[in-house]
Each structure stands twice: as structure tokens, then as C-alpha cells.
Specification:
alpha/beta, eight-stranded mixed β-sheet, globular, binds FE2/S2 (inorganic) cluster
């Protein structure tokens, strides 16, 4: 079905960028280059629509996206455009987490945004579809769409199916697995609760094929946020990666971007402040990843929308957590797909006055119009609770402030780990030493693990602490140990964990001044993160503090560190450019 665009606007120039590139005798050389890649004479009269593919065999999240790109190409060409498929990079957090290579992860978001901009800008593309299936390529694509403001539609690559354990342990056989199961199995193995053979069985079965990590981790969170923003077609966020529905989504997205071009609808008309509030509301109701905070701030920056950490608190006070999804809950994304995806949940939020129904979407319709015919979820299984019987009455994404995080910090507090935590600091300079201590039994109940030197500048790259948090869970310490960091978390992390502590240690934030044994209080009800050390003592420590030497002085990590802003501003790289 073609998306229906009802807005009446005067026809616009459909080739504002490809026309100057390709028209006239003086552009003959440019046209000559395009015949070999499939252009006919007639194609030079059509708008050029890019298809930004994140295909690679680096990771299963994106290994099918070449096929999806071909479907999007068909959709463009069938609706009067001329599609050109091109690639950008992708990396995999699932593979890199816990390793030095993970420092490139957040960097890749910026590289992806920059690379799509580079190709679209250089090639005179009048609009484009971007297809992403992993944590950073999705916000990277959206940052570019907001930045360039050419008609664009995002397509989510889709979720993976759960793995199924068929190993030697009769007790756990048949259990559904995903990548976080493996990270937590590492902790169980270190605690002596899992044998070598059982760990290997989990490792070998957890990832059955193509698609993004299968809980409400960062990829599924961002896919849902992007649909709520209005930048993907209805239901794009909730389809299995390998499914007829996903192929259809791609064809319709290709057609939709040509229609957007005809109507002159550009991303910044869609990416309004209200649209970001809708995205926050949906992320909260789904129990989504803390990374949504970082990425939505970055996309908003690119769209020239003023969004701050306080907006997450403001919106989150009115929105309950409704979905019982992993990592804190029981169900996988594919289970949510099977009962109708996120649209019934969005309808519930709309009916409760928690979404702005008048926001425009890439269909050309308002959000309310796209949700008009949505039916409620079936009564069982109870993957999504009714609005008046939530899992948590307000947001699990808690913005903490206090003398340990004057510019803010982000925690994912579902309530299962309790509302307050008080303990003595155990400080680590970087993730590796912390992980070693946790796995080696050096972290006991009552401790607040402090991992610093992992911020956007200091890391650089703000690594995700999935390995340490999973090790804590695997060790059975999830309710007894808290973890704070100036790095961030995977969507798969759970427990009493607070990240994005700002200012970060590298720039002399208070987290740099914490010492072993200091008392730290985390209060999710008061939203405070407090270091119980006197101001005079902190002043003494600050005087003695020395800024560490940068870890990288050349290459992309050094460039990122030089330009990146604080996590409280989305960790973007184009905010402070001066010529
Ligand atoms: Fe790609 Fe998780 S590593 S979605």
C-alpha cells in the first residue's frame, strides 16, 4: 500500500540537487559517469534518491540489509524516482563491548552521520532512505537527516529471533537466549554456577541469524523512538529482520520518500520539540535504553530543537513503564512483534493524553491519523500492561543530579533493584580493571563500583559498561552492588546503574575526585547522586588533581575527543566548530 499524503502544497522542484549536478551540456561528464551504474536517458529527468545501506558482514545486525536496500530501491523506482544504493560503515557493540575497540562505537555514530551526509551531498541526492539495524547506525542516520533536512525516511533493519538453548543443562534447556544471555553467562561461569560446556552452549546458540539484538536494548529502543518521532513508517520498528513485512516496509519507504519530495515535507517539519517528547514517552513506556537519552539529545541538536536532560524528567513524570521486555523484563522484541508491535502501546499513550497526536510523520499524516485504526493488544500474553496497572508509575530513565553529577547523570531504575542505594566507593580507572575485580571476586555487597576515565573525551568514546554490569548480575550481586560511570551503558545493562556522569573525570568532574571508601548515595526518588565528602575536602582533592594525558593523539579517536561535547549535551561533534 502506498503511504497516503494528504497535505496540499504547491508542487516543488523535485530535483533541487540533482538538477544542477546533471542538467545541461556542461554536465555531460557527470551524466557519462552514471550510464555504467544503470542510468537511462529517462532517469536523468527523475529525482535521485539515495539508499544508504549499513550492510556488512561485521555483525549479524546488518548482514541482511543489502537485500533490504534492493527492496527500497524498487520502491523508489516504481514511484518515479531514480534510486542509487550506497553503503556506510557499521560496527558492533555486541562484539566490541568490554574491549578497547569499543571506544570506536559512539565515534561510529558521528562517522555514519558524516559519511551519509558526504555521499548525499556530493552526489546531488534529492532525498534518501537510510536503513540501519544496529545501535549507532540508527541515530547516525537520524542525525544526518536532521542536519541535511532533505526529504528522508528511516527503515529499521528489524529484530533478531531469540536463540534457543539445546546444550547439556537439562534445567536451562529450551530457555530463550540473546546476546545479553551470553554476557551474563560469563559472570555465572566466573561465579562457578556454569560449567565450561554450559557456557559454550549458551555462546553457540544465542544468535540464530540476522537482526538486531533481541530485547528492548538500544537498537529496538532507537527503532521505536524513531517511529515515535515520525521518521519511519508505521510499524517499521516492530518487524522481524527476516520477514515479508520488513521487505514490504522497505518498498513502501522508497515510495514514501518520493512522495515527501513531491509534497516538500522535510525532516525538520517532523522533528519538532513535540515529536521528541513523543519519542521520550514511547521509550519510557517500553522501558528502553539509557542510550536513547544520549541519541535523542544529539538528533535534537542536529534538528535545532532545544532538548535537555530536564525534558526527560518532565515527560517521564507523566509516563508509566508498561512493557515487560528484556533486559529487566521477561519478553523479547519478537514476542512484542507477534502481538502487534508498539502501535497499540502508542495508541494507549495517545488516548491517555501522553502523546501529541498532531505531529507530522513521514506518511504525510499526523501521528493520530496513523494510529486511528490500531486495535488493542490481545489479552494474553501480558507483555504490555494496561495504562492504569503499570510496571512502574513513572519513568525508569532517571536524571540524577548532585555534587557528584552537577550537570546530570542517567540511570535506568526499574524499581526491581530498589529506589535507593548507599555504599562505599570502589574506584577503577577504566572498565578492564573493574571487570577483572568483579569476576575475580574483589567486589562485595555494599559497594558502589565507580568506573571513570570512560567519558566522551577521556575514554575517548564513552564505552558501554555491559561487561561489568552483566558480571555483577551473573555473580548474583544485582541488588547488592551499584555502579556509576562517566561512560554509558548498553541497552542490555540492568541493576542499580547510573552512567553519563557529567562533567566527566577527564575534564575534572567530581567523579575524578572520588576515593576508595567514600560514601556514595544514589536516590532515584529524589533523583540525587551524592558524594558524602565535605566541600573543603573536595576542594583539597581538586587542587591536587592533574588532568590525565590524552590516550589518543592521532586518528579518529583523537579527532572525536577534541570536538565532542559533554554527554549531557548528546556527545556531538559539530557543536563547537569555529573557523
Ligand atoms: Fe547490533 Fe546489538 S550489536 S543491535
Amino acid at each position: 500500500m502506498q503511504p497516503r499524503i494528504r497535505r496540499s502544497r504547491p508542487p516543488t522542484n523535485l530535483r533541487p540537487f540533482s538538477g544542477p549536478l546533471l542538467d545541461g551540456p556542461e554536465r555531460a561528464a557527470a551524466r557519462a559517469m552514471l550510464y555504467p551504474v544503470g542510468f537511462t536517458e529517462a532517469d536523468f529527468q527523475k529525482p535521485i534518491i539515495g539508499i544508504a545501506s549499513t550492510w556488512s558482514r561485521v555483525t549479524p545486525c546488518n548482514m541482511h540489509i543489502d537485500q533490504l536496500a534492493l527492496e527500497a530501491e524498487k520502491g523508489v523506482n516504481a514511484n518515479g524516482g531514480k534510486a542509487i544504493v550506497f553503503n556506510t560503515i557499521t560496527v558492533s557493540d555486541g562484539i566490541s563491548n568490554g574491549n578497547e575497540g569499543m571506544k570506536y562505537s559512539l565515534v561510529s555514530r558521528e562517522v555514519i552521520a558524516d559519511s551519509i551526509e558526504t555521499v548525499v551531498g556530493c552526489s546531488g541526492m534529492d532525498g534518501y532512505v537510510a536503513i540501519g539495524g544496529c545501535d549507532k547506525n540508527m541515530p547516525g542516520a537520524l542525525i544526518c537527516m536532521a542536519r541535511m533536512n532533505r526529504p528522508a525516511v528511516f527503515v529499521y533493519g528489524g529484530t533478531i529471533l531469540p536463540g534457543c538453548l539445546a546444550g547439556p543443562s537439562a534445567s536451562s534447556r529450551g530457555r530463550e537466549l540473546d546476546i545479553v544471555s551470553v554476557f551474563e553467562a560469563i559472570g555465572q561461569h566466573a561465579a562457578g554456577k556454569l560449567s565450561d560446556a554450559e557456557l559454550h552452549a549458551v555462546e553457540a546458540c544465542a544468535i540464530p541469524g540476522a537482526g538486531a539484538c533481541g530485547g528492548m536494548y538500544t537498537a529496538n529502543t532507537m527503532a521505536s523512538a524513531i517511529e515515535a518521532l515520525g521518521m519511519s513508517l508505521p510499524n517499521s520498528s516492530a518487524q522481524d529482520a527476516v520477514s515479508p513485512a520488513k521487505l514490504d516496509d522497505c518498498r513502501r519507504a522508497g515510495a514514501a520518500v518520493v512522495d515527501l519530495l513531491r509534497q516538500g515535507i522535510r525532516p525538520r517539519e517532523i522533528l519538532t520539540k513535540k515529536a521528541f517528547e513523543n519519542a521520550i514517552a514511547v521509550v519510557v513506556a517500553l522501558g528502553g535504553s539509557t542510550n536513547a537519552v544520549l541519541h535523542l539529545l544529539a538528533i535534537a541538536h542536529a534538528a535545532n530543537v532545544k532538548l535537555s536532560l530536564d525534558d526527560f524528567t518532565r515527560v517521564g513524570r507523566r509516563v508509566p513503564v508498561l512493557a515487560d521486555l528484556k533486559p529487566s523484563g521477561r519478553y523479547s522484541m519478537s514476542a512484542l512483534v507477534a502481538i502487534g508491535g508498539i502501535r497499540p502501546l502508542m495508541k494507549t499513550l495517545l488516548d491517555a493524553g501522553r502523546l501529541h497526536g498532531d505531529c507530522l510523520t513521514v506518511t504525510g499524516e499526523t501521528l493520530a491519523e496513523t494510529l486511528a485504526d490500531v486495535r488493542p493488544y490481545p489479552p494474553t500474553p501480558a507483555i504490555v500492561r494496561p495504562f492504569d496497572r503499570p510496571i512502574k508509575k513513572e519513568s525508569h530513565l532517571v536524571i540524577f543530579r548532585g555534587n557528584l553529577a552537577p550537570e546530570g547523570a542517567v540511570g535506568k531504575i526499574t524499581g526491581k533493584e530498589g529506589a535507593r542505594f548507599e555504599g562505599k566507593a570502589l574506584v577503577f580507572e577504566g572498565e578492564e580493571t573493574a571487570l577483572k575485580a568483579i569476576l575475580g571476586g574483589g567486589v562485595k555487597a555494599g559497594r558502589v563500583v565507580v568506573i571513570r576515565g570512560e567519558g566522551p573525551k577521556g575514554g575517548p568514546g564513552m564505552r558501554e559498561m555491559l561487561s561489568p554490569t552483566s558480571a555483577i548480575m551473573g555473580k548474583g550481586l544485582g541488588r547488592d552492588v551499584a555502579l556509576i560511570t562517566d561512560g554509558r551503558f548498553s541497552g542490555g545493562s540492568h541493576g542499580f546503574v547510573v552512567g553519563h556522569v557529567t562533567p566527566e573525570a577527564y575534564v575534572g568532574g567530581p567523579i575524578a575526585l572520588v576515593r576508595n571508601g567514600d560514601r556514595i548515595l544514589l536516590d532515584s526518588l529524589q533523583r540525587t547522586l551524592t558524594l558524602d565528602v565535605s566541600a573543603a575536602e573536595l576542594a583539597r582533592r581538586r587542587k591536587a588533581w592533574k588532568k590525565p594525558a590524552p590516550r589518543y593523539t592521532r586518528g579518529v579517536l583523537a579527532k572525536f575527543a577534541a570536538h565532542v561535547t559533554s554527554a549531557s549535551q548528546g556527545a556531538v561533534t559539530d557543536a563547537n566548530l569555529t573557523l
